[in-house]
UniProtKB/TrEMBL annotation:
InterPro entries: Bact_solute-bd_prot1 (IPR050490), SBP (IPR006059)
Protein name: Carbohydrate ABC transporter substrate-binding protein
Stretches with biased composition (Basic and acidic residues): 8-18
Disordered, as annotated region: 1-25
Source species of the chain: Streptomyces reniochalinae
Length: 462
């Protein structure tokens, strides 16, 4: 049994991974410092820092002391350094020195990665890739990366099948090993639920919407009839949309790689639920990760939010100790994923063999479990779910919610969703243009949808 205390984490509206403030993870064995990923995994490498360099004579050469420096390019806070995993690996391999090249935001990191791939130089020995970019990397650049499906020592069965499939190229190559994932739950304010006449005990709360996102909206309608003060049921319609659409087997692309979001059942039904929430005045009209969203946590302005594991620390930080006995976590209506990344090894690097060994070690179940314990980064390695750092993990701030069990069950139920090269662009545009125009500007649902479609058509090839 592990008891986990966390702070914020990782992904930024499908654009990558963001910072997570420092927090604590406590187990029954010992307290630990933690710094979860935030907002799926947003950020880290700029053009100047991408290199280490796998295909460059720069930072990967053996030094005067005989050690080989293996460079790791990441965006945002992956937590390997913070959790002490680099130090441990160096102790196990005295001839290896690890250098992390980190850039804060994925929107800076990823274009630089593509530039270095095109140039054939400046790459780190290991390069992280965010989930919204992995399909494009696999589809267009698979020949530039080591095929993990054929790499010695890689055991496909360690990973959830849907996570493994996300990094698979059309030719069958697997370009990266999965790191974290973002199985979703619902974080809710027990005190506000009680004041609105709703159940507040997590098992009963989970039953309110089990199996159907429309039941979550129905719960919101019940809440608003007796909402305490000026509170809203949920933070914003985009969070609801993201949670719902991620539970469908098809979102924006079909299995053949065709952009199908305009006809997607998942998109249509999730959009309609978001619009229903807006029209029912049950949202706080907040854009996630803006200052107003942060302040709303502190003020107790909404009663529930769709939340992956990495968001628990964010809520704890923004809501503060005054709300420590008020938040809890229940399962989401259906399993869905928000966030995650991969470690890739570019071909032709001077230390390709050493990089492959390090990438395998960092993504092995044992290391993934430790990263969850210390950093709130939920494992994509299903074998980690039976390890003590994950199995039975609880979060004191959220009423000792059994987050290990809640998120592990969700993770194993997440559908294998076809990804496309511009998944992130489509998702962000629907949320930040389409939904927000309706929610914050008073546009009609049709106007909001048309605005999103126009923008997507302008930037994405159909």
């Amino acid at each position: 049994m592990a008891t986990i205390r966390k702070t914020s984490t990782t992904e930024k509206r499908g654009e990558g991974r963001a910072h997570a403030p420092a927090g604590r993870v406590r187990t029954t064995r010992h307290p630990l410092r933690t710094r979860p990923l935030a907002y799926g995994l947003t950020a880290v490498l700029g053009a100047a820092m991408l290199g280490g360099c796998a295909q460059d004579s720069g930072g990967s050469s053996a030094s005067a002391d005989g050690k080989t420096t293996v460079s790791v390019g990441v965006f945002g806070v992956f937590g390997y350094k913070q959790a002490g995993l680099y130090d441990e690996y160096e102790k196990l391999h005295p001839n290896i020195r690890i250098k992390e090249n980190a850039i804060e935001r994925n929107e800076n990191y990823y274009p630089a990665l593509l530039n270095h791939l095109s140039a054939g130089s400046g790459l780190s020995d290991i390069q992280a890739v965010e989930v919204d970019n992995i399909n494009e990397v696999a589809g267009l650049h698979a020949d530039k990366f080591v095929d993990m499906a054929k790499a010695e020592g890689v055991d496909k069965s360690h990973w959830l099948s849907w996570k493994w499939s996300q990094a698979k190229a059309p030719g069958g190559q697997v370009v990266g090993l999965g790191t974290d994932i973002g199985p979703m739950g619902i974080c809710y304010r027990k005190d506000l639920f009680e004041k609105a006449g709703l159940p507040s005990e997590r098992d009963e709360v989970g039953k309110l919407w089990k199996g159907d996102w429309s039941k979550y909206v129905e719960t919101g309608e019940r809440y608003m009839k007796a909402a305490p003060g000026d509170t809203a049921f949920t933070d914003g319609a985009a969070g609801l949309y993201n949670g719902a659409v991620s539970s469908y087997p098809v979102k924006y692309y079909d299995a053949d790689g065709k952009l199908v979001y305009k006809k997607s059942k998942g998109v249509r039904e999730s959009w309609d639920l978001a619009m229903r929430a807006v029209e029912g005045k049950m949202t706080g009209k907040l854009k996630q990760f803006d200052k107003e969203w942060d302040q709303a946590y502190a003020n107790g302005a909404f009663a529930s939010v769709v939340c992956p594991p990495w968001m628990l620390g964010y809520i704890k930080e923004k809501a503060g100790e005054k709300a420590a006995d008020k938040w809890d976590v229940a399962p989401a209506p259906k399993p869905g994923n928000w966030g995650g990344s991969f470690l890739t090894v570019p071909k032709g690097g001077k230390h390709e063999k050493e990089a492959l060994k390090l990438a395998q070690w960092l993504t092995a179940p044992k290391q993934q479990a430790r990263l969850f314990e210390k950093q709130a980064s939920f494992p994509s390695a299903k074998a980690a779910y039976d390890l003590p750092e994950v199995k039975g993990a609880k979060h004191p701030y959220f009423g000792d919610a059994p987050i290990g069990d809640i998120f592990a069950e969700a993770a194993e139920g997440i559908p294998t969703i076809p990804l496309g090269p511009k998944d992130g662009v489509v998702k962000t545009t629907i949320s930040d243009i389409g939904i927000l125009q309706v929610e914050q500007q008073g546009k009609s649902p049709e106007e909001g949808w048309n605005a999103a479609v126009k923008k997507i058509d302008d930037v994405v090839e159909n």
